[in-house]
Every structure is written in C-alpha cells, then in structure tokens.
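STRUCTURE REQUEST FORM
Protein name: histidine kinase
Source organism: Rhizocola hellebori
Requested output: structure tokens
Priority: standard
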Amino acid sequence: MGVAFRELIFDLAAIVEDAHHDQNVLDRVMRLGERSLGALGLTLGELADGDAPGSRIVAATGASSWALGRPIGADVVKASLQPSPAPYPIELDILEDLAIAQLKALGIGSIQVYPIYIHGRAALILAAFFAEGAALDADQTAVMKLVAACIGYLYRRETPEHAARGIDERELFMAVTSHELRTPVTVIKGYAETLRDHWDRLTEPQRIESARVIGQRATELARMVDRLLEASTASEAISSRIAPFDLLESLRKAAADLPGYLRKRLHMKLPPQLPPALGYRSGLASVVVELVTNAHKYSPGSGPIVLSADSDGRTVFFRVADRGIGIPADRAPNTFERFWQGEAGDDRRYGGAGLGLFLVRKTIERQNGWVSLRPRDGGGTVAEVRLPRGDIGVGEA
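Status: completed
Returned output:
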C-alpha cells in the first residue's frame, strides 16, 4: 500500500508537541497508526516486570477496542517478544477461546506485533489487527515501526525517574509505606505521652481533645493497615475473586460508609443503571474512601465533592471531582503516568507521602482497570477509575 509518509510524520510531530496538554495523546497516535496501516484496529499492551502477572492492554482502537483493560496472558507475551528487527505475525490459537471468537466475529484473522523497549527492557507491545491472511508490506512495516518509535518516545519522556534508575517497585512501596505510617504513629505517641506525663496539669477540655486526636489517628492507622493488607494480597488471589458486579450498588454502599464530615460534602450524581463492572467488589470501598478523602484534603472549605458514574462501549467508570487547588496541566497524569506520582517532591503544602494513591493504583490495576487524574474545567481536579465491562460478549465492541 502507498503511505504518505510526509503527512504522517507531520501529524505525529504535531501530536507529540501537544502531548503535555492533551489527555488523548496516545489515542490520537494509535488512531493515526490504524488509518495509515489500513488496519482494523491497534492495541498497546503494557508489560509487567519480569515474570510477574499484571500485563494488560492500556490502549485500543477500532475493532480491537473491546480488549481495552484486558489482561495479556503469559503465552501471548512470550510469543510477542521474539527477537526481530521488524513487526511479525503471531498465531491466533495462542489466545483464549473467547478472544479468538471475538476476533473472528469482527473479521480479524491476522495479528502483527512489535515490542517496544524502554530503558533496556521490553515494556510495551504494539499489535495491529488485519483481515484473514493479511501480511505487512514494506510501507506498512515502516509505519508500524514509526508509530512504535513515537509511542516509545512519549513513554520514555513520562516514565518516572525511579524507573529510569532501576529502583524496584517493592523498594519504592516499602519506602513510601514506612514514611506514611510514621506520621500517625508519631502523633499517637506524642499525645499519649502528654496524657501520661502531664495529666494533672491538663484541663478537662485538653484531655478530651488529646483523646479525640488519638482516636482519630488510630482510625486512620487502622484504615491504612487494611489497605496495605489488601495491596499485599497475592495477585492470583485477587484474580480468583474478579467477577461481574453492580458498580452503582457498590458506590452507594461505599458512600454511605464514609465518615460524616465527608458525607456532608459528597454530592452523588449516579445514573439509574449501568452495565456490570468486571472487578473485585470488596476492594472498591477503600478506593472510594481514598479518592473522596483526597478530594476533601486538597479542596479546603465546604464546596461539594461530586461522585458520578457512567459507561462506554468498553468500560464502566466513576469519577470524583472537586474544586480544590487543582493540578497543573503539565503534571496531570495521562496514559503513561501513574496516579500516585501527582504529589511527588518534598516541597508540597500538604502532608503524606502518597501511599493512599499508590494503593488505589495497585488495587485497580490488579483488576485490569486503571486510574487517571486530570484538571477539572473551571478549576479543581477529577479522579477517574475505569474497570472493564462485565457484559461484553462475542461480537460486541
């Protein structure tokens, strides 16, 4: 096929230039690649480190859109990482039966893959979907490599510094955890020692206030420990509990269980019904608590915090929106960034090391979903959680 490479390069350059201000940059690159290749669809898979589970589809277009958020099996990863200087085909029969049926129902009979290496390791897999028996010509091969190079550039630019330095995620998790746990423990210890050493000199209101602070911090500590235990649960155990569930019912229950000061600020804008979500129902409550607490923390005053939900053809999602301090556009997470990075640094105006948001990310990604953070029109921040739909059947996109 003939490809207008000059126009393609100009279009890719324009997309890259807008990357800091466009939340849909990856989607634009993928759709441009799909059109230029003449493909039925494209997917981008993000690979977990080493042999760890958690590889998943993070972007999908066209006829392959149904795959967004779905896990990538170990056999598919292995087949997609063969040493090759150019894209190459993989056999459909290594996929799960449902995926094979889905692809065939959509007229897809050929998959071409190309791994993308970031900081020396295979981090992504770009896959193009074609009709039965299709093979790439020289122009299509060049297009796929060019699109992969563009995605790799964007990903490298947004990859966290700790990843570039090769810091293991477990080490980062332990460092953040120890920092975050230290705060409530220190406060509890300080007030307890004050009561013990100065009981006779304290007034009754001072004693009551000290006891109140100890109780409040102990509650925070207990909630934090619960989240840590949830995040440390083996991935296999989480996977075994993933099933379709009613997101609206779970959101209403989580909202009802919020502390009173949070319920007063929460405005719920939920539709009458939604398709089922595919995920781990029990883990949702801690996610809602963390996002609403975070919105309260960064939006001082009594302004409303809005909880809404909706769905599209591929996912079911909910949003927590506030009118707080907001987040600069150049720091807003997009497809490449992770939610828990948003408040990095030592010069922040608010306490905490971001453990809660780190655990939100871990909890949702282990259910093949994802979390994003972006500025809200008119000021403030929107946190969005997406999970795969639990009712996607063969032939649906």
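Reviewer notes: The domain at 5-159 is CATH 3.30.450.40 (Beta-Lactamase). DSSP finds 13 helices and twelve strands in the chain.
Form closed.
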